[in-house]
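Contributing new complexes? Match this layout with iron/sulfur cluster.
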Amino acid sequence: MKSFTYQRAQSIQEATQKLMQARTEVIAGGTNLLDRMKVFLDEPDQLIDISRLSFNQIQPTSQGGLRIGALVRNTQLADDATVRQNYPLLSRAILSGASQQIRNVATIGGNILQRTRCPYYYDTGFACNKRKPGSGCPAATGLNRMNAILGASDQCVAVHPSDMCVALAALDAIVEIEGAKGKRQIPFTDLHRLPGNQPQFDTVLQPGELITAVILPPMSAAKSGVYLKLRDRSSYAFALVSVAAIVEISQNKIKTARLALGGVAHKPWRATAAEQFLIGKSVDDDTLQQAATLALQGAKPLAYNGFKVEMTKRAIRRAIGISANGGGLA
Ligand code: SF4
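Output block (do not edit by hand):
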């Protein structure tokens, strides 16, 4: 690891100003950043530690939702009594990711901002457009079993690795951002970007901006929300595909539907066409089949991940069916 200076920020303003300086990174949990620094992918001259700042609380909002500070640890959020009761899919999504040790240290902001990547990104013996723009994407024609089937470009076919982010996308979360130019809020689904011809950028954050909180709106239907993750082994494995589904039933018909997919795209993928289709329908095999087909419309599998298309469709049918029946473990 290359040597660097280390400094604790005393305020968010100090951190955002320092972040405007060249070759500067902020560190909180460090679970993704240190991995990258150890293999020389990131070589900052200075690290600004924000872990002692006060964005580490989970608070009720005046609207009846929750405001989650960006420095809340993953374990703290997954174990929060209100989250478990009102947004159980969020708790289950977090607990399905990484390991207990990583979840104890990793922050919510860091989970959201971990790099979208594939194994080639970490191996400097290969080219990678995300690491070095214009160098090439070996995953597009190489080993791409874990890679994207939706929204990819010929520049990058990586998928966003977070489970938590798939649940946040389905929950209509809002992201609070602070930077040298002030504060702003954006829908969570607008934070991450598709690769296009600039795969080096994972999000729409501007230089110097930091996430300070995530806001969950009140959502009574979320109590029946489901997070279903399919993976190669039962722990410490990224999703092959995952589904966050929140379905609200009224008089035996679907009143509202929220559907987000993980493991399939460069960002948590909200399946809006399928959601619209579901409204007003009965929950039967034909409805679920059509919704799943709509959600995967436009899928472009690579040489080794064609199985993800059918796997995702089946996961969607299962997750919607469980949510429509009141939720629970998928
Ligand atoms: Fe790099 Fe993206 Fe290609 Fe992976 S898929 S090698 S991260 S450019």
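Reviewers usually confirm one structural detail per submission. For this one: The domain at 221-324 is CATH 3.30.390.50 (Enolase-like; domain 1).
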